[in-house]
Amino acid sequence: MANPHTTPATATPPAAGHDTHGGHGVIGHVDSPGLLFVVFLVVIGLFAANVAMSTSGALGKYTLFAQLAIGAVQATFVGLYFMHLRHGDKVVVLTALASVFWMGILFVLFMSDYMTRNRVMG
Amino acid sequence: MSASTHSPVLKHHFGDLGQQHASERLGMWMFLATEVLFFAGLFGAYACYRLWYASEFEFASAFMNLKIASINTVLLVTSSLTMTLAIRAAKLGNKSGLYTHLLLTFALGTGFMVLKGFEYAHDFHESYLPGEGTFVHSNMQTEAVARGLDTGKVRLFLCFYYIMTGIHGIHIVIGLGCILWLVQQAYANKIPPENYSTVEVVSLYWHLVDAIWLFLMPLLYLAGAHLKVGPH
Amino acid sequence: MTTAVTTAGPKIAPVPPEPPPAEPNYLNVSYSLWSWLTTVDHKRIGLLYLISISVFFVAGGVAAGVVRLNLLSPDGAFVNEDTYNRAFTGHGVLMLFFFLIPAVPGVLGNFLIPMMIGAKDLAFPKLNLASWYVFMVGAGFGVWALLAGGIDTGWTLYPPYSSRSSTSNVIPGVFGVFISGFSSIMTGLNIMVTVHKMRAPGMTWGRLPLFVWSLYATSLIQLLGTPVVAITTVLLMVERVAGIGIFDPMIGGDPVLFQHLFWFYSHPAVYIMILPGMGVISEVLTCFSRKNIFGYHAVAWSSMGIAVVGFLLWAHHMFVAGISFYSALLFSFLSMLVAVPSAIKVFNWTGTLYRGSITFQAPMLFGLGFVVLFVIGGLTGLFLATLGTDIHLHDTYFVVAHFHFVMVGGMVLGYMAGIHFWWPKMFGVMYSDWWSRVAAAIIIVGFFLTFVPQFVLGYHGMPRRYPNYPAEFQVYNVMSTAGASILGLGYLLPAFYLPLSLVFGKKAGANPWSATGLEWVSPSPPPLFNFDEANMPVVVCGPYEYALGVDQLGRGLPPGPGLGEANDPASKSEAPAAPGPMKKETEVVG
User: Fold this and answer.
1) Which of A59, B183, C397, C550 has a CB 3.0–4.6 Å from the CB of C454, allowing a cystine?
2) CA-to-CA distance for B31 and C208, rounded, in angstroms?
3) Same domain? A35 vs A57
4) Are B104 and B72 in contact, with CB atoms under 8 Å apart?
5) What is the ipTM of this complex?
């Protein structure tokens, strides 16, 4: 990773066409309200789909999987657009991914016990 | 970058505002990583029992108040939108927009908690409580017995319900406090455009609490939505 | 890779003049108690940690004394069984949560990380102060639990005993652990952000001192592990208060789940304790053998490897707790994996020592002790990772001896090495060379005598935490208690000569050990913001250029302690070990 003093990631020039308040170079990207609203609609729409899908029970035993998949997509949208992961430093993205990865460690190794606990050897 | 190295909001141990903002953002993200792992413990525990006691958990979930939870989801996602718009207002130096969006976010979050209160009151009224002494009076108990389910495991779900929503609620309340603090900071002129990152770090926390709710919703309220039981 | 010391050529850079003493420095800028309690200076906060954890170390040591003395006789020498339970729990809780975990990150990490990377402070100075207050509040709850009569569950707090049966002070104790966890998270977060964002120009990742790398890895564990134990303790407290909870077997809950959640943090937590010690050792071994570290990248990345792999193997604490056979097999295999990065470190330290110009000042004695004891502790860990042998050795004194070799033999010696190495930097004075060497020798001897018999005891089946034992075990227990007395004496010595050095110690220069890190550039004690603010450091080379004889700014090194001339091993082989560091000190001018 580059030295922070020589290449501060946040000091990159803002995207053209956005007001950066005198060009301090510290404001960075300014969101477009339209895009945020579209993301908002997507998240709400996915929620409605989730409720409809769960209530119908059409997916049977795959319901839980589908529910969590929808939740993950929603969280990804929130992360990328509302939490600005799209414009995040490399290390910020890495931090976000690390938290998910470590949660994965917890889940996988917990399941290694709980899915096989009552299985008899041999 | 003289504006960024001589700003009144620049703390002395940072070289410039870019470094300060990046540090603040990274610090908040690292804190969010700890929050994710904090909830991962809960979700992991839930996963183990959901795996073992799937029918009891789905059964109990069907008694949860889907209507209030759905309204709450909309409130929380909307509050995330207004919070993001608050950052935009801060960056543009639009102070009245900053107030409006912060207060809107606060109102939506408060609405979430108020509805949550009504939901808890309803659950108490119906005796949907994990303690055996009260639980035996609920229609959940009667119906669980009729379906041949283990009432202990149904109560285990209720433990998760109260602990998960309770801890999430505490996070909401902390977030509301932080938003009020932002309003006070804005009032004291401490959030000029080059200090927008103060709003941003609070918003990151708020969005995470929102994102966690997006998982609590299916696990607690939608798990048994397909079952024809409960107070529908 | 550097050339061997013996082929080092003439000096490539002139030795800089001794910097004038900082006026004011961080110690004498103000004297009021209030100025200390409200300080946001990372160096002062490090000292606040130093004082508080020393108190807990003594308290934990007293509890250990009660345990060891009581084991002198097969039926308990002087306390009843209940008190014994509370004593070993107190020892565990105090030593782990209130000494070992904050020890190096809180004291040395706070003090040194900004100095080593060339920053004026940590990224979040107020958060840093808050972490100390949070720690003290947590510790306050812990002390409350102890003063109210103690806890009798063992530090592992397993339900259902802790949630239902125990009548001791579980709630305040657990709450203390919960709160002090936040302090650990705050410190870790601060250090990680600082390392990412505050490095001086030229301080690339490949030039970071290995102490910084190891604390970075430690902080990663603190950030990602501690929240899991936080939620676990919350669940435990809820269950104890409400009388019902998710670990309650009466409603289908699984008490083993608590153990999973608990060890998800608490196994990585042993790496929180040992990794900083490893960082200290990398600094000390290079300095006192006057060599570049052997395999810099291997040592740096093995720290990260330990941090990651350390999260994958917690369930070896639960092989006999009723977890799935398949899972146990998996965890047994994964537990073996952590031996790889640990061994990489040991081999590289040994490679560093090979043909080095070694001198034996106190930090080096502690450092060498660390390497030897850690090797024993690590190898016996493999016995416990192996599924079959663990069935035999589980919950015996073999386990106790194993983790004491790592935690005390490793970490406490590492901490001692660090305190002795950086003491002149912290306070600008040098402690007694003779007494510090004696203390190191006594501690290492006492340690062996305490814990080697415990391996024998455990192998023959004496379970841990039992107040009584068959008479044939008495001889080993007496040996162990005798060793503990010697060990205790060894720990007492620094409690005298270190504080005395503050008054009577000779003045130490900026770089008394002739070391290469940035922290040695500033005068001792350092000024308020660590460096000359008009002239912040610019790093030009790696952290251990002892062979070239330059520090990280590319300036020459002053003569080292015990060496007639820095970087001239020939003079050392003729006249070794004559003086302590103080005599040389005054000559380092010009």
Assistant:
1) C397
2) 24
3) yes
4) no
5) 0.95
Alpha carbon distance C500, B82 (integer Å)? 61
Is-contact B18 A27, C-beta < 8 A?
no
Give backbone dihedrals phi and psi of A110, rounded to 5 degrees, phi first. Answer: -60, -45
Query: Is A1 part of a structural domain of the chain?
Result: no
Q: Are C70 and C87 in contact (CB under 8 A)?
A: yes
Most C-contacting residue of A1, A3, A95 (CB-CB within 10 A), to test interface: A3
Task: Show the domain range for A98.
Answer: 89-117
Q: Count how many domains chain A has.
A: 2
| Contacting subunits of B (3+ beta carbon pairs below 8 A) | A, C
What's the pLDDT band for C207 if we cut at 50, 70, 90?
Answer: very high
The answer to whether A109 contacts chain C (CB < 8 Å) is yes
Q: CB under 8 Å to B122, separation ≥6 — which residues? A: B65, B68
Among the residue ranges C21-25, C90-94, C437-441, the one predicted with the least confidence is C21-25
C126 touches chain B (CB under 8 A): no
Report CA torsion sign: B186, B190, B192, B194: negative
* Count of structural domains within chain B: 1
B127: CATH: 1.20.120.80
Is there a contact between C252 and B167 if contact means CB atoms under 8 Å apart? Answer: no
Query: C5-585: which CATH number, 1.20.210.10, 1.10.3210.10, 1.20.1380.10, 3.10.20.90?
Result: 1.20.210.10
Reported confidence tier of residue A1, pLDDT bands at 50, 70, 90: very low
Distance between CA atoms of residues C404 and C100, nearest Å? 12
**Overall size of chain A counted in residues:** 122
- Taking only the tens place, the pLDDT of each residue in C526-560 is 999 999 888 889 999 999 999 889 999 999 998 87
For residue A80, how many other CB atoms are within 10 A of its CB?
15
Residue A6 lies in a domain: no
Q: How far is CA B61 from CA A57, B218, B219, C239, C277, in A?
A: 14, 10, 8, 21, 49
Q: Any CB–CB contact under 8 A between B155 and chain C?
A: yes
Neighbours of B231 (CB within 10 A): 12
The per-residue pLDDT for A26 is 73
Q: Contact C251/B33, CB-based, under 8 Å?
A: no
